């Protein structure tokens, strides 16, 4: 059993997607990389990766941003898990979540993908749903807007003011998750009622 964690930040590659709600997972990884004081390098598994420790003496992590489109995130995820010998219970997917309000972070292991194609592809590639998820709330689309149109838009002006705090909180959630475990992270980020 490895003590290395694979943290996957979901999103789409390319400058035109960088500010999209759908790319919030990759934004969280940028925040973690900044905390680690290091940058991403290309990996043959079609991903940008950063290897290191979260905090002094903290757990070993591989931060990874797949360079494939969101809907085919599974290939790079499985390839990296294989390459580093990381089991699904040490894989953390950081992703946008429309089912929770903007500015909210929730964590869970396993369960459904809630219509999220990136997660669905990872579950298929890993042949299990039993990996960890850090769900970064982006809220529901307004009115009759299609979900796909909503998540592929940049954050609104009001949201952008709050976004740094949300990314900071999600990065904290990842750190607590890999350092102290899921229960400790859930207690901190959703103390009201535990969620499975």
UniProtKB/TrEMBL annotation:
<comment type="subunit">
    <text>Monomer.</text>
</comment>
<feature type="site" description="Stabilizes the basic form of H active site to accept a proton">
    <location>
        <position position="96"/>
    </location>
</feature>
<dbReference type="InterPro" id="IPR018171">
    <property type="entry name" value="Pept_tRNA_hydro_CS"/>
</dbReference>
<keyword id="KW-0378">Hydrolase</keyword>
<feature type="active site" description="Proton acceptor">
    <location>
        <position position="22"/>
    </location>
</feature>
<comment type="function">
    <text>Hydrolyzes ribosome-free peptidyl-tRNAs (with 1 or more amino acids incorporated), which drop off the ribosome during protein synthesis, or as a result of ribosome stalling.</text>
</comment>
<protein>
    <recommendedName>
        <fullName>Peptidyl-tRNA hydrolase</fullName>
        <ecNumber>3.1.1.29</ecNumber>
    </recommendedName>
</protein>
<feature type="binding site">
    <location>
        <position position="17"/>
    </location>
    <ligand>
        <name>tRNA</name>
    </ligand>
</feature>
<feature type="binding site">
    <location>
        <position position="117"/>
    </location>
    <ligand>
        <name>tRNA</name>
    </ligand>
</feature>
<feature type="binding site">
    <location>
        <position position="69"/>
    </location>
    <ligand>
        <name>tRNA</name>
    </ligand>
</feature>
<feature type="binding site">
    <location>
        <position position="71"/>
    </location>
    <ligand>
        <name>tRNA</name>
    </ligand>
</feature>
<keyword id="KW-0694">RNA-binding</keyword>
<dbReference type="GO" id="GO:0004045">
    <property type="term" value="F:peptidyl-tRNA hydrolase activity"/>
</dbReference>
<dbReference type="InterPro" id="IPR001328">
    <property type="entry name" value="Pept_tRNA_hydro"/>
</dbReference>
<comment type="function">
    <text>Catalyzes the release of premature peptidyl moieties from peptidyl-tRNA molecules trapped in stalled 50S ribosomal subunits, and thus maintains levels of free tRNAs and 50S ribosomes.</text>
</comment>
<feature type="site" description="Discriminates between blocked and unblocked aminoacyl-tRNA">
    <location>
        <position position="12"/>
    </location>
</feature>
<dbReference type="InterPro" id="IPR036416">
    <property type="entry name" value="Pept_tRNA_hydro_sf"/>
</dbReference>
<keyword id="KW-0963">Cytoplasm</keyword>
<comment type="similarity">
    <text>Belongs to the PTH family.</text>
</comment>
<dbReference type="Pfam" id="PF01195">
    <property type="entry name" value="Pept_tRNA_hydro"/>
</dbReference>
<keyword id="KW-0820">tRNA-binding</keyword>
